[in-house]
Amino acid sequence: MPLILVINPGSTSTKVAVFKDTVPLFTETLRHNTEELSKYKSIIDQFEFRTQAILNMLKEKGISLSEIDAIVGRGGLLKPIESGTYIVNEKMIEDLKKAERGEHASNLGGIIAYTLAKEHNIPAYIVDPVVVDELEDVARITGMPEIEKSSIFHALNQKAIARRLAADLHKKYEEVNLIIAHLGGGISVGAHKHGRVVDVNDALNGEGPFSPERAGGLPVLDLVKLCYSGKYTYQEMKKKLIGQGGIVAHLGTNDVREVYKKIEEGDKKAELVLEAMAYQTAKEIGAMAVVLKGHVDAVGITGGIAYNEDFVKRISERVKFIAPVYVYPGEDEMLALAQGAYRVLSGEEKAKMYS
Ligand SMILES: Nc1ncnc2c1ncn2[C@@H]1O[C@H](COP(=O)(O)OP(=O)(O)O)[C@@H](O)[C@H]1O
Ligand SMILES: CCCC(=O)OP(=O)(O)O
């Protein structure tokens, strides 16, 4: 019965778990506030900090790395690839370190898994990275031929929750049309058509709703003007869009629980900004209903923010005319990662090779 270490770096957290086969021994979430993360210039600079946090957690739980049989991490911004479990190889590490497709905490999932696994001579995997690409061609075209739309989203959790929702409908994932909204540090809304995510907002690079730390879609020419205003460097502009945008920019925190505290204390601006995030998310769900030509079996709402019933209600009341709304607070990512690694370790599936 293999012991599997699961590492899931998100933009606002590092989640760590150890599974025996596919049974969790423990799962912990280490939350990182804006102040803690703003010390680091780039995501790769967070390597030591996040690795140490994981090692401390293992020590606290009395588990030694020498007992672990395989490590699986959340996959990052690689080339667009199909869904599945991939062995972490040198080429993948090179691409994650170069970060040519962008910087996101999930880049560290593969890198940390590989580094720790190498020291202990065990395999490292990633499963359903954020670049899983099942877009229909029509969804790729933008109005500027030089710019093609990308599929960058919470693929791991969206797929896991979509399967769970299909099961709750007593159907197979491949038989239903679903819209899944993941509400995390980033927000992604995907149209799942018979088991494929045929359209989804790029949750990293400025499409769809703003989120706790992303600016989301913006009036384009105003953005161009700001870029050329001479006020900001490229790196500063990037931070304003990814990491320091959205709720952080408006309210100075990436923690939606803090926003609710402000609202309880009578902060009207906090209430309006929060309502706007729910409004934009609902609007994106509406757009995905159009992608599916109105044939929607259910809408699923998931991610950390889905723990908050008020926020879910703000979305549901706008979208419940489309299809029944199901809520899955948090995520199924840790189990999905462990299951992906286990399918390979048990010989049920062959690991895919990234090239
Ligand atoms: N109980 C809760 N109520 C409301 N928001 C929450 C709760 N727990 C976490 N969140 C919010 O969820 C967001 C993080 O979601 P999560 O899915 O864990 O994302 P990530 O993978 O980006 O770290 C943060 O803004 C956090 O404040
Ligand atoms: C990079 C797309 C997935 C995403 O936004 O993840 P987080 O919510 O963990 O930042």
Automatic annotation (TrEMBL):
<dbReference type="GO" id="GO:0008776">
    <property type="term" value="F:acetate kinase activity"/>
</dbReference>
<keyword id="KW-0808">Transferase</keyword>
<dbReference type="InterPro" id="IPR043129">
    <property type="entry name" value="ATPase_NBD"/>
</dbReference>
<dbReference type="GO" id="GO:0005737">
    <property type="term" value="C:cytoplasm"/>
</dbReference>
<dbReference type="GO" id="GO:0005524">
    <property type="term" value="F:ATP binding"/>
</dbReference>
<keyword id="KW-0418">Kinase</keyword>
<dbReference type="GO" id="GO:0006083">
    <property type="term" value="P:acetate metabolic process"/>
</dbReference>
<keyword id="KW-0963">Cytoplasm</keyword>
<keyword id="KW-0067">ATP-binding</keyword>
<dbReference type="InterPro" id="IPR000890">
    <property type="entry name" value="Aliphatic_acid_kin_short-chain"/>
</dbReference>
<dbReference type="InterPro" id="IPR011245">
    <property type="entry name" value="Butyrate_kin"/>
</dbReference>
<comment type="similarity">
    <text>Belongs to the acetokinase family.</text>
</comment>
<dbReference type="GO" id="GO:0047761">
    <property type="term" value="F:butyrate kinase activity"/>
</dbReference>
<dbReference type="Pfam" id="PF00871">
    <property type="entry name" value="Acetate_kinase"/>
</dbReference>
<dbReference type="InterPro" id="IPR023865">
    <property type="entry name" value="Aliphatic_acid_kinase_CS"/>
</dbReference>
<keyword id="KW-0547">Nucleotide-binding</keyword>
<protein>
    <recommendedName>
        <fullName>Probable butyrate kinase</fullName>
        <ecNumber>2.7.2.7</ecNumber>
    </recommendedName>
</protein>
